[in-house]
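Why run this: before we spend reagent on co-expression, it is cheaper to look at a predicted model of the complex and decide which construct boundaries make sense. The entries below are exactly what would go into the expression plan.
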Amino acid sequence: MHPLSRLKLLRPPTSDEQIATMRAHVRDNATDRPAVYRMISSDGEIVYVGKSKRLRSRLLSYFRCAFPEDKGARILRGAEQIEWEYVPSEFAALLQELRLIKRFRPRFNVTMKRDGRNYCFIKLTRGPAPKLVVVRGPGEDDSSLYYGPFMGATGVGESVRELNDVLGLRDCSVDQRMHFADQSELFDSFPRTPGCIRYEVKKCLGPCVGGCSVQQYDERLSLARAFLDGTDDGPLSHLRREMEESSERLEYERAAVQRDKLKRLEALRGQFARLRFAVETLSFAYTVPGHGGDDRVYLIRRGRVRAETPIPTTPAAAADLAGLIGEVYAPIERESSQIPTHEIDELLLLSSWFRRFPGELERTSATAGIAPLAVAS
Ligand code: SF4
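The model came back. Tokens follow.
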């Protein structure tokens, strides 16, 4: 049978008769092997994407939902077609499911299946006076910047609070209105009191009350970004320079404050380094036996599948794989903790997979060794 099986049903999509027809189609055509499936409404909307190691059993379980309010029953009532696509393995099904969910955002896949218990990210919001927020993963707003992943949201939250205090960044609600000093002419009545006490205790520059200009706030934000990036000492050397200049001008009180900030930032740098999850540990070739001998090798670098190919069975195919390995791993990548939004869910999926099935790590290998290992004699 063609790997993509499709059934079109008569309207209305939710009738018992249509559901019975769908069930018969699944019973007659689906087989128990890894697959990704989609539930599609009468107007072509993909309302749900799922995956299973045993497709037939999984799909038939939808038709056994005892109560109409069960999620499975609701999905079925919203769909009039079921499509599925066989894939070589459970791992391949997971990856494909993730990609389809990200692409189509089906309404019954309310949230991504994330392993949010262990990791968190620091998100830099957009808009005037951006702020740092600790989140479990990307939201709908994919254009934000994310740093991470980090281990332990509580510890990261405390460190971010301290970073905000040191650099004077705001931490109030995203709805808080901003009134920058250099934009005061835009406002009829310039607010006289800040939205919270942090401005008065000098822990926030006070962009809500004209306490700083756009540029001053942006400069502090750049320091925070460089700091979170973890790749340069920008914020620290900046503060060190300021402290030295204050000393030279004999402004000892100011220099002492800057010295204290410097110490706290140095401590925070170590704190963030300890909390940061080493994405580099998820860099290897992963060999996965597939259904019917459809074995695959996945080239994973820094928590993302960069390439996938059948395991080579001839010297020529092995040479191709060696070339692919070079393309994937040879380019030097900056070890920044800033992570593109589209990579976050895949990284979480991979780390969750290898934590759930630690034995799978035995199928991974340093990329230098994969080509000779993979060639069948
Ligand atoms: S002082 Fe103003 S901008 Fe700063 S955190 Fe408080 S409300 Fe927000």
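The longest helix spans residues 252-275. The chain has three domains: 4-104, 119-275, 279-374. Bring this page to Monday's planning discussion.
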